[in-house]
Amino acid sequence: MSIALLAAAIGFAGTATAQALPPGVEAALARAKVPREAVTFLVADADGARAPRLSWRAQAPMNPASIMKVVTTYAALDLLGPAFTWTTPVHVDGPVKDGVLQGNLYLQGQGDPKLVAERLWLLLRRVQGLGIRTIAGDIVLDRRAFDTVEADPAAFDGEGLRPYNAGPDALLVNFKSVVATFVPDRGAEVARVSWEPALAGVAMQATVPLAAGECGDWQSVLAPDLADPSRLRFAGGYVADCGERSLGVAYADPRGFAGRAIAGTWAQMGGELRGRVRDGRVPVGSKPAFEIASPPLSEVIRDINKYSNNVMAQQLFLTLGLQQKRSGTLEASRAVVRRWWTDRIGGGDEMPVFDNGSGLSREERISAAALGRLLQVAWRSPAMPELVASLPAAGVDGTLRRRALRSGGSAHLKTGTLRDAAGVAGFVDGASGRRYVVVAIANHADAAAARPAFDALVDWATQD
pTM to 2 decimals? Predict the structure, then answer.
C-alpha cells in the first residue's frame, strides 16, 4: 500500500471522534480521573490494509514525551543505516621518546553517544599502545562538531543532578555521569564505595557507615551531597540489607566532566600528564594516530529506546544535522528531520514539532495519526527488524520490564513520561496473528495515572 493510502486510511478514521472506547479503557480512565478529552488513541493494522480498529482524537497534536525517540531513531535508521558508527579520532603532535610524548594529545569528538567508561579505558589503552606513558604537553579536547548552547541541567525540572538531564556534547564521556557502587562490609560496619569513572581533582568518598532497616528508599537514607564539583560524598548511611547496589548521578560541573574523567582514568592506568586538560582544536592538516569506533547504530538505538536515554537521543538527533548538512546544530537537525518527514512519511497532517529529538521537551508535538503512519511506514521498511528490536518488550526488558500484558500477549512499545505527559507507542501482536500499531498518549496534570488505561488498550488490541 502506498504512503498516500496509509495516510488516507488513518486520516479518515481520525475524524470519527465519537467512536466508543473499549470498556476496560473507559473504566481505567474513570478511575484515574483523566478525561477522554485529554487522551488520544489509535489502533491500526501495521500494514495499513484496513481502516483502524480504533481512532480517538487521532489528529490532536500532543506532547509525546519520550515516544518522540521513535521518530529520531527511525529517521536515523533510514538516513544513516543500521551499520552507521561514530568515530573518535586521536591525534598526537610530537615524537615519542622513552615513553614520553613530546607534545599534546588530541581527542576529536564527533558525537559518539556511547563513549562510556570502559570504552574510554580502551581508547587510552590504545594511546599506551603507541608507547606513551607520559604526556609532556596537554590533553586537548576538540568539541567543535556540535555547536550547542551550554544549558543549565536543572532548567527543565529542577533536577540538575539526575542523569536524564545531561546535555549533548561532541565529546560526551559516560553521559556526564558517575556511578557509585556500594558493597556492605558488615565486619567493618561500612559500605565500601567504588566510583566509575575516576575523576581527577575530585575527592570521592571511599566508605559510608552501614544503616539498619529495610531496603526501601535507600537512596534517601544515603543523603547524597553532590553539589560541590570538588567532592562527592554522602551525609547519611547505606542500608546493609540492600546488598550490593549502584547509583548513577550527573556531575555538578557538566562542562568539566570529560576532562576530569579522561585525566582521572589516565592516572588510574598509570599514565602521567605533565600539562593539563583543556579545550582546543586539532591542528590543521593533522592526521589521526588512530580512531576508535562506536557500536553500530542498530545497537545504540536499543539503549536509546529500551532505557529511554535522553542524552543519547540528543546526540543522535544532532548527528543527523552533522551528517546530512555538515552542521551539528539543533536548527540543522530539525530541518533534516522535517525534510525527511515530508519525503518519507508524508500525509496531510500538520507537521510534527521537533525540538531536540529526545522528548525531554515542553515544545515537541505530534499526533497519534502521524505516529501511526510513521510506524506503518517503518513496518514495511528494511529497517523494521532493527526498530522493533530496539523497543521495550512488555514484561521482558527496558522500561516495560515490570508491565506484562494481562492477556499474555506480546508487544514492543516505546514509553514516555513527563510531568504532564505520558504514553506508549509501538507494535502489538494480535491473537489472530495480525500485527497492529498502537498509540496512546495523555496530556494532563495526572497523565501518569492513565497508564492502566494504556495497558488496557494494548490488552484489547491483542484480543482480535
Answer: 0.94
